[in-house]
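pinning this so it doesn't scroll away 📌
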Amino acid sequence: MALSGLEIYKKLPKTNCGDCGVPTCMAFAMKLAAGQAELSACPHVDPAVAEELGAAAAPPIRTVTIGAGEDAVKVGGETVLFRHEKTFVNSPGIGVLITEDMDDAAVDARIKSINELQYERIGLVLKPDLVAVKANDGAKLEALAKKVADSTKASLVLMADNVAALKQGVEAVKDKKPLLYAATRDNADEMAALAKESGCPLVAKGEGLDSTAELAEKLDKAGAKDLVLDTGTRELKKMFEEQIQIRRLAVRKAFRPLGYPTLIMAAQMSDDPIKQALYASIFIAKYGGIVILSELRGETLFPLLLERLNIYTDPQRPMAQSPGIYELNDPEENSPVVVTSNFSLTYFIVSGELEAGRIPTWLVVVDTEGLSVLTAWAAGKFSGDLIGAYVLKSGVVDKVKKKRVVIPGVVAGISGELEDELPGWEVLIGPREAAYIVSYMKEQVG
């Protein structure tokens, strides 16, 4: 960063309004300095100041948005080489390729896969994000783009070897803000003008690292700011080396011509879908911004989605469920109260077992700052006094007549303390593992 947090703070409105999602302007300034926030999050910053701070407050990898609305895909915005240094910010977009030479059945199969291959895991929906439509005939590109836009919520990548075809395709789906592929050394001026006119992001496709940097710099000067890089390489080893060089030069050396997210055309690296998935897994880890596959298969897509989730989950902020009372299977006044932590995985395992076992339950989720039960207990965030106080203020007391509370077996030692905090309640020690909670509830609780 060119400016410190204090230097940025001096230029902010200092209203402490919280509209940026951070309680104070000082805290927001520190996040800007650390590359953890974007200046656009502040709705009150003076336009002149925004322009002045723009470069200083921008992350070394520019954030680029593909698409519009809640399903838009954000890529880039990264500030570190390794996740453990801070965190990774915007997870890579995963997409499928549709070309003009495919028949209707093949096109429909890919559209079906983008719509149906979605998985719910710990409260999140894991799904592919993009459809890349490739055609050198303008009418075909327009028709395919419209069909995909009308049939899916996925963001679009429009691909053509000539500017005229891209213009026709863009005109049909301009409001979807597709990613345009691609500007090259030969058509840079025309493509920069099209990107500016349409307000769409643009791929800078070079012939190696040096030419890609030169092209990106030229496009930037021409006013095309939202760029995605494709070095043109399709050989695995060289591409891997280039991805690392791009990230190192952008993050460590602040080399702006390479400070953009990258696109990986795995579909052009192999005809084998299994190999494509393998290549995709490499570049999801280092450091692809977008990965395009020739087809989507559940057996290869699901592992890629899980890999992406694991890598792009902030290691410093556990995934947490909102604290509160959750009514499972229509509980009534004689149904038991079960307490657990608000670590997402814990919550979904416990609630899933109880729902599957059709056990009417008042599930009280205690705020443990996203820590699991045992970790929270060790950190003093899942103790008898804290649980007791939360149960009393949660309102569950007014919902039950038979006062029974079940605690996880791994923290059986807090039962006495919890009895002191909840006079008149029966504290039951549940199983150590959620897999046995249904049988326990049926046998011990009734």
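📌 and the second one:
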Amino acid sequence: MPIKQVKTEKLKLKSSSQKLKVVKKSVVKSVQKVKGLKIEVLDLKGKVIENMDLPKEIFGAKINKVLLAQAVRVYLANQRKGTHSTKTRGEVEGSTAKIYRQKGTGRARHGSKRAPIFVKGGIVFGPKPRDYSLKLPKKMRRLALFSSLTAKRDEGKIIVLSGLEKIEAKTNKMADVVKNLKLEEKNKKILLVTPDTINACENVYKAGRNLKGVNIISAKMLNTYEVLNAKTLLFMKTSIEVLQNTFLNPPLHKALEDKGEN
């Protein structure tokens, strides 16, 4: 066999072996990512009782920092009421008569005493009621939420609790749970995510509403700002399923419409 052919075959073997190594590394990384989506489920005493899988689409999404900043900006803008108002010289109370004659007084010429340069006069270019609200497309809102949840998961700031729905409606009971989870900090910011509205989780709401540093929100109402603003996310076990059904699975009436079963 010629020397050139031997060299080319060796090069081919090296390139193929390198490709295999790259493929193996990518497979290992993907397996590690899938394994990393498992999380421990704790009881009210802070002990591990089981492991559960988190939805990969929600807690394993790509983190987009630009989208997160945009979602936070839109959320904060939508919180502004825009009801502030000031009076112009045409709205302020006072006479419209000329203060004194135009000439011969030696003073500057003036008309109405409601002019902005006088005390109790009108305001120039003051704020008026306006709409500060901004809009973000639904897909972008969801991707921003998934990015924020993924970031919190990477930081290890997500805790899943089981049995919280059986808690008594007493603040000291919720304080004991926070203490058992070792979240008792001076400046703690805990976001408790419930599977349903406040009326359905009345005991949980009553137990945590007066506890400093604890905010309660339904999984259906979860948003990017609340997730990023909290130091720790405390999920009730059933709220993970509600989160998945709300933001991933299509509503039932739409599925029936697609099948033609109205």
